[in-house]
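Quick one, tokens below. Sequence please?
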């Protein structure tokens, strides 16, 4: 069995632990949350006290998809102290956030991820680059632990897989991914509702925000590179919140002929987040890594500690030229 050695060590660490915390990355997406929920429920079945550590409250669609199951915490402190940390969908220690204090204290750490630029931190790590999502990886772990699948666990895993594969459209979607999804569907999960929650059911404010961002569109390299931006003042003018700003980078990728999409998100006066998407002609994780970020070959991101305008200058001067246009 693939990762048999790691499964045995993970099982041993779980057996000897008495208070476990599972932590997805800062600003978690449905894959990070879904895999965490599924694993937490499995550990509770095994009689293990378990919490999921979040940096802040879930917002927007995440709040609707993931109701409070009684194991959410926002503190790294516990009595008794946590004696096992499991990170999900986290490529670098920086993205562990405030829960990094547990690593600093020497708490045994299990790292579960599928990103190519994972730093392989922790006492045990499974970084499966062939997995479509961390939820797919966690499904295999649950089976290795002899966990009992049920409708709730299946639902949370399915949410993570559907989200990270773009509803089974992205390149990491494999025959195994489809087989696994089929197995999860045997538990009569509401696949239509999951799809609607993830990709439809947009608020009026989110449509207005999307239109505003689309108006910032700039094209480069003969229409093969698209650049969009979300300014902080757009929220107020559209009556929107940050939960309405999901997947705005897809404005660029949805344009015919675009191979490389860049989306800038003004977080505050001195912080701009940059999302990168590729259709295969450029490895965006390599670009993101240059600026302290990470991700996949086709989906990555990073943050620049500078204002929006200066960040945009950097993007146009240094990032856009990295793309080599097609020969006409």
């Amino acid at each position: 069995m693939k990762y048999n050695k790691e499964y045995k060590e993970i099982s041993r660490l779980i057996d000897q632990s008495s208070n476990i915390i599972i932590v997805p990355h800062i600003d978690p997406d449905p894959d990070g949350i879904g895999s965490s929920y599924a694993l937490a429920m499995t550990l509770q079945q095994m009689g293990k006290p378990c919490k999921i550590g979040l940096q802040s409250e879930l917002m927007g669609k995440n709040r609707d998809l993931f109701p409070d199951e009684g194991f959410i915490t926002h503190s790294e402190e516990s009595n008794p102290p946590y004696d096992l940390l499991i990170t999900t969908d986290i490529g670098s220690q920086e993205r562990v956030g405030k829960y990094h204090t547990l690593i600093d204290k020497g708490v045994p750490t299990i790292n579960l991820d599928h990103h190519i630029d994972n730093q392989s931190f922790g006492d045990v790590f499974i970084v499966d680059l062939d997995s479509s999502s961390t939820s797919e990886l966690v499904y295999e772990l649950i089976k290795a632990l002899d966990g009992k699948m049920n409708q709730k666990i299946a639902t949370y895993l399915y949410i993570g897989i559907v989200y990270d594969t773009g509803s089974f459209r992205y390149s990491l979607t494999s025959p195994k991914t489809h087989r696994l999804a089929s197995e999860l569907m045997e538990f009569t999960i509401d696949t239509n509702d999951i799809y609607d929650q993830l990709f439809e059911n947009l608020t009026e404010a989110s449509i207005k925000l999307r239109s505003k961002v689309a108006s910032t569109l700039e094209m480069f390299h003969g229409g093969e590179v698209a650049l969009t931006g979300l300014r902080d003042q757009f929220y107020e003018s559209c009556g929107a919140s940050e939960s309405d700003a999901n997947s705005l980078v897809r404005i660029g990728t949805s344009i015919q002929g675009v191979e490389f999409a860049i989306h800038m998100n003004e977080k505050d006066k001195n912080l701009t987040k940059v999302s990168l998407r590729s259709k295969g002609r450029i490895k965006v994780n390599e670009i993101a890594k240059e600026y302290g970020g990470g991700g996949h070959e086709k989906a990555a991101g990073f943050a620049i500690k500078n204002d929006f305008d200066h960040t945009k200058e950097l993007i146009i001067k240094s990032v856009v030229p990295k793309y080599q246009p097609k020969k006409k």
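The radius of gyration is 20 Å. The chain has a mean pLDDT of 93.
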